[in-house]
Write a sequence for this structure.
């Protein structure tokens, strides 16, 4: 990460921090000291979120709260003892993150529209689980296309395996960009 930052690149540190407040605060402070652009923290409670904000201090580090992993379904949440539907839980955790001083959330594109209606425009929505129409979703229970995620209010997209595991990663990335731009030939 240091080399990328030294070269002027933005670094998204997807650590999904969740620990006792002291540990979250110190880990966040270390990420801030590195000059990381974005850091993810599980947004499940105010203690964790507040510890990350304290650890960030006055640095420009953008804190993003993971609301509900895109691989989780209603049944998975029930197994964890959570009775709320994923969409409701996402809104609840986004409100906690915003109140704690976070810059945005990590949320499925399926929840982006309801989030965009509930939060100010400057509160970031970062959407993982991005797949092109017809692609295998793998372990993503709440996947969406890049164009839909952007149309629903996402500010940033996280695209992993559809690019990193593609036979031609550059071509796969270009297809994603074409779809976002609205080029109907993207899948043709």
């Amino acid at each position: 990460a240091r080399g990328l930052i030294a070269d002027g690149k933005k670094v998204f540190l997807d650590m999904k921090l969740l620990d006792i407040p002291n540990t979250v605060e110190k880990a966040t402070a270390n990420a801030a000291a590195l000059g990381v652009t974005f850091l993810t923290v599980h947004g499940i409670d105010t203690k964790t979120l507040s510890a990350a904000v304290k650890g960030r201090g006055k640095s420009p580090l953008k804190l993003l709260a993971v609301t509900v992993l895109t691989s989780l379904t209603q049944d998975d949440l029930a197994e964890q003892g959570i009775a709320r539907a994923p969409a409701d839980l996402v809104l609840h955790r986004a409100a906690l993150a915003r109140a704690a001083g976070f810059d945005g959330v990590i949320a499925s594109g399926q929840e982006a529209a309801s989030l965009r209606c509930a939060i100010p425009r400057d509160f970031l929505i970062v959407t993982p689980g991005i797949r092109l129409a017809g692609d295998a979703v793998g372990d993503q229970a709440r996947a969406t296309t890049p164009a839909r995620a952007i149309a629903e209010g996402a500010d940033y997209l996280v695209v992993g395996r559809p690019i990193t595991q593609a036979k031609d990663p550059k071509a796969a990335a270009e297809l994603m960009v074409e779809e976002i731009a609205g080029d109907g030939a993207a899948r043709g």
